[in-house]
């Protein structure tokens, strides 16, 4: 049993929620053992959460939660919008290593509709560094085509690793 955690942070990202709620995505996730889902839908107005097959998927869905770190800590796969805060929560694996055996796979989906498409830049840089996998909405299903061993993990317990990455990004 694998836990899939989807988060859109405080934004409205209906397209991401609709994509993960689609029958095709559900089937792929189930085939790969993700039968427990937590979906944080933020200010989304879509009603597609009801399309998730609860006879096959254990589901917890909410707009906001004061204890969201708990879900980052236990997820096996994190699908996040491209917000820097959410990405950092997903990749800061060492903070959670006391609670878990491994760092989760983190997949980011930039929300291109936001001002100046600002999420794409940080997502692309982190993807280039092998920290996260980055997908567009229409290619999100491809995350199930990769073996777990293909995901590179970056240990961010050393603050200098993150500082160097951030400095490179900003320069």
How many beta strands in the DSSP annotation? Answer: 6
Classify the helix fraction into a percent range: 25-40%
Largest sheet: 6 strands, parallel
Distance between the termini: 42 Å
Order of helices and strands: EHHEEHEHHEHEH
What is the percentage of strand-forming residues? 15-25%
User: What coarse outline follows from CA principal-axis ratios?
Assistant: globular
Broad structural category:
alpha/beta
Low-confidence stretches: 152-159
Give the averaged pLDDT, no decimals: 82
Rg (C-alpha, Å): 15 Å
State the helix count.
7
Strand order of the largest sheet: 3-2-1-4-5-6
What is the element layout, followed by pairings?
Blueprint: E1 2-7, H1 14-21, H2 23-31, E2 34-40, E3 58-62, H3 69-74, E4 77-81, H4 84-91, H5 93-96, E5 105-109, H6 118-128, E6 133-134, H7 159-170
Parallel strand pairs: 1-2, 1-4, 2-3, 4-5, 5-6
Give a structural overview.
This protein is of the alpha/beta class. The chain contains seven helices and six strands, in the order βααββαβααβαβα. It has helices at residues 14-21, 23-31, 69-74, 84-91, 93-96, 118-128, 159-170, and strands at residues 2-7, 34-40, 58-62, 77-81, 105-109, 133-134. It has a six-stranded parallel beta sheet, with helices on both faces. The longest helix has 12 residues, at 159-170. It is globular and about 50 Å long. The model is unreliable at 152-159 (pLDDT under 50).
């Amino acid at each position: 049993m694998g836990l899939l955690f989807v988060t859109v942070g405080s934004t409205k990202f209906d397209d991401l929620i609709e994509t993960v709620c689609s029958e095709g995505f559900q089937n792929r996730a189930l085939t790969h053992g993700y039968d427990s889902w937590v979906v944080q839908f933020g200010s989304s107005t879509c009603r597609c959460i009801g399309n998730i097959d609860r006879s096959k998927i254990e589901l917890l869905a909410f707009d906001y939660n004061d204890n969201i770190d708990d879900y980052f800590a236990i997820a096996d796969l994190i699908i996040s919008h491209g917000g820097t805060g959410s990405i950092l929560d997903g990749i800061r694996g060492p903070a959670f290593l006391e609670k878990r055996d491994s760092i989760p796979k983190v997949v980011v989906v930039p929300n291109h509709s936001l001002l100046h498409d600002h999420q794409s830049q940080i997502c692309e840089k982190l993807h280039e560094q092998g920290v996260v996998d980055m997908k567009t909405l229409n290619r999100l299903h491809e995350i199930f085509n990769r073996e777990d061993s293909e995901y590179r993990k970056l240990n961010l317990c050393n603050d200098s690793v993150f500082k160097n990455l951030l400095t490179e990004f900003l320069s």
